[in-house]
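Subject: sequence -> structure tokens, single chain

Hey, anyone have a minute? Need the predicted structure for the following. Not urgent.
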Amino acid sequence: MRTSVLFLTVSFVLFLSASQARPDDTATAAAVVDQAIKAHGGQEQLEKTQLMTRSAKGTTSFIDKDVPFTDEWIRQLPDRWRQTVQVGPPGQQTQVLVVINGDKGWQSASGQVAELEKPRLTALREEGYLHWLATLIPLKKDNAFTLASLPDARVGDQDTVVVKVSRQGHADARLYFDKRTHLLVKAEHRARDAGLVVTKEYVYSDFKDFDGVKLPTKSVELTDGKKMAEVSEFTYKFLSRVDDNQFTRP
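Reply:
Had a minute. Here:
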């Protein structure tokens, strides 16, 4: 009985401590996000990132070799996007088209069109969710998110503050903000890849101004610490609207 009383007493004290710390912790994390939004151009400017075209060129890892690629990604976050990827050296390129439209998705490769199977669709929707979080805007507009501060960390040669983002129905995400510039320099989450649970990271660098919004022009994508793709150049174009046909299966 004495042991049970001691256990209950300690548990109650720990519960009170956690309850008292949580508001301060959330407020600290929210302040970090506020600083980052300001550093990226402000909330009004960042709203433009919800509907835009992002073009990229770089290399992707294939059987331990770097293969060149280009892509164009039309994003109407968080639920609709269309990505066209050209992979391979000039004259030997293969085109892959992937479309996510709410709870449906399809892809086209070598002229063959197919519905995305549920595991892949779920994984791609989660990837889109992480990119949506990286725009920072949903963290200010949706009360369904819970923010928490995590211990500081290093990203390359940068000291960063880390914010954990939680929302029911999604894996927790971690956002890393440069202590000096307050810019978002890494986003990561746990995800499924080929049936395995892995850690996916996107490391951002070389920020430039695009119509009042400071965005990265380079990135590295890693899975469980292994480099999967490296973008050497991003460009962005903000849109006022997008044709619904862009997301319709042919």
